[in-house]
Amino acid sequence: MYIAASRSSTPSIERGPAPRRVPANVVALGMVSLVTDISSEMVTAVLPLYLVLVLGLNPLQFGLLDGLYAGATALVRVFGAHLADRWRRLKAVAGFGYGLSAMCKLGLMAAGSSVAAIGVVLAVDRTGKGLRTGPRDALISLSSEPAALGRSFGVHRALDTVGAFLGPLAAMAVLALSLGSYPSVFFTSFCIAAVAVLILVLFVRDRPGAVDRATVSLRTAVNLLRDSGFRRVTLWAALLGLVTVGDSFVYLVLQRRWDVAATFFPLLPLGTAGIYLLLAVPLGRLADRVGRWPVFLGGHAALAVALVLLGGPVAGLWLAVLALGLHGVFYAATDGVLMAAAGPLVPAGVRATGLAVVQTGQSVARMFSSVLFGLAWTLWDLRPAVLVSAGVLVVTVLAAAMARP
């Protein structure tokens, strides 16, 4: 296994040849994410349709709930990552987050048709995600050589995406077998999530940063933003998050414009997941070679093109397929690549905290993004909201390319 050396100051990226093997810890964490994503994507695939068609939410109400779903992680990301660094228990904190999210699948069953109760359960579920994401990504970073971070995150995200690909299929199968019973989907999702927690306990090894825990404090996290490179990456990542359109809205736009039947709605994320799965590792390796920020911005440019296709005057089936493919390119070029870009800018002892700061900025921004898009859809109708979002995203990507953080 590969362990990144601890650093007392901001490290530089090593340019030596990358090791050929992916660390075992990265693969184990990828398997945890794979199984977890089967569970979570089963819920994500059916939830937008359940809330809009079954419970009757309008776009603004759905935007508020989707914003809560995206933003709840922001409240705990830095706190959970700080505890993981200070206690030197990255695995334990990540495991608690995975377990909390698993229990929330049962909470969805108990919530029934109460929108308020569903909102609370979704907030707790995202709290679990917020607790686990920083320590998990820190474990990946600390288990890998700096020169191969893009590939390690790419492999992890590829395994994660296998779960995202299988989740909607599992949801559709359960709906078919249970004659449209959403509680059956939620219970099956819980059982699968419990398996993921077991894999984490048995196969993932801790890799805490080798520093005195007395030096790890919340002030340390604030001080990370004094580094100009880390601060610029964090701020630009948040700004780009503010002008993106959430996944649920992308799929609802596809459903509305192409009149996708409710039975096949859970299959829409498969287009995104399939391209993500194919490109996560190649784009991670490309980012290691040519630069992580250009690849990150290229992913946002792909999303802008997808939005133009979704909001354009033509509604051919091939445009829907192309838009889903570009949505997958967006994730393959941004999700793990951003963590690979930010990781080397943070000392090993506070790696979880530093990555959580970046993720928190994105979560808060995407929370407001969902609310704003839902409001735009309500006020302007579907196509104008999509096209305005695409235009704002293009302008922001060009500005970020000029700034080159």
Give a quick set of tags describing it.
Growth Hormone, Chain: A; 77% helix; globular; 405 residues; mainly alpha; 15 helices
List the helices and strands and how they pair.
Layout: H1 24-54, H2 59-71, H3 77-87, H4 90-111, H5 115-142, H6 149-177, H7 182-203, H8 218-224, H9 228-242, H10 247-258, H11 268-290, H12 292-311, H13 317-342, H14 351-380, H15 382-403
Helix pairs in contact: 1-5, 1-6, 1-7, 2-5, 2-14, 3-4, 3-5, 3-14, 4-5, 4-7, 5-14, 6-7, 6-11, 6-13, 9-14, 11-12, 11-13, 12-13, 12-15, 14-15
State the gist of this model.
Residues 25-405 form the Major facilitator superfamily (MFS) profile domain. This protein is mainly alpha-helical and 405 residues long.
What is the radius of gyration computed over CA atoms, rounded to a whole number of angstroms? 20 Å
Q: Which CATH first-tier class would you pick? A: Mainly Alpha
Largest sheet: none
* Distance linking N and C termini: 31 Å
Q: Helix share of residues?
A: over 70%
Query: Which structural class matches the secondary elements?
Result: mainly alpha
Strand content: under 5%
List the helices and strands in order.
Answer: HHHHHHHHHHHHHHH
- Enumerate how many helices there are, as a single number: 15
CATH topology, what is it called?
Growth Hormone, Chain: A
In CATH, what is the homologous superfamily? MFS general substrate transporter like domains
Overall pLDDT score: 82
Main location: membrane
Pfam families: MFS_1 (PF07690)
Protein name: MFS transporter
Transmembrane segments: 42-60, 96-124, 158-179, 185-204, 233-254, 260-281, 293-311, 386-403
